[in-house]
Write a structure and sequence with these properties.
mainly alpha; binds phosphoribosyl ATP; Helix Hairpins; 114 residues; PRib-ATP_PPHydrolase-like
Length: 114
């Protein structure tokens, strides 16, 4: 059973997804989403990589506030990348649901040997 905080967090992601979809069509001179989207998949993907590295650096520095800020940047840019590639938040949640209850250790052990 999800807590009210869990429901609010999911609603935040759903609202951001809708905002990104809407802002992709906006004027790139007034919208970062539109400007970044117009630069194409390689630039969006580069930003995701940069924000992931910045998140790791903040974690390794024990910088909790930095980790929260960089994680927000990472999630935002990842969601811009999903929009660019036609992936929905629900698609990613469905994949997480599919994995629920399967230990990562057991899953890895069940992979066919190369
Ligand atoms: N959550 C965010 C968000 N997080 C970070 N950013 C922007 O992401 C950018 C990242 O900064 P960087 O210095 O890394 O990027 P940069 O200098 O443009 O990149 P480079 O070309 O130098 O690589 C900054 O401009 C941040 O303001 C965001 N921009 C927008 N949103 C959300 O998207 C909505 C729509 O935004 P617009 O499309 O700008 O209206 C906003 O209302 C917010 O809800």
């Amino acid at each position: 059973m999800e807590s009210p905080a869990d429901i609010a967090a999911l609603a935040t992601l759903a609202r951001l997804e809708a905002t990104i979809a809407q802002r992709r069509q906006a004027d790139p001179s007034t919208s970062y989403v539109a400007k970044l989207s117009a630069r194409g998949t390689p630039k969006i993907a580069q930003k995701v990589g940069e924000e992931a590295v910045e998140s790791v650096i903040a974690a390794m520095a024990d910088d909790r506030a930095g980790l929260i800020g960089e994680s927000a940047d990472l999630l935002f840019h990842l969601m811009v990348l999903w929009a660019d590639k036609g992936v929905a938040l629900a698609d990613v949640c469905a994949e997480l649901d599919r994995r629920e209850g399967t230990s990562g250790i057991a899953e890895k052990a069940s992979r066919p040997k190369a």
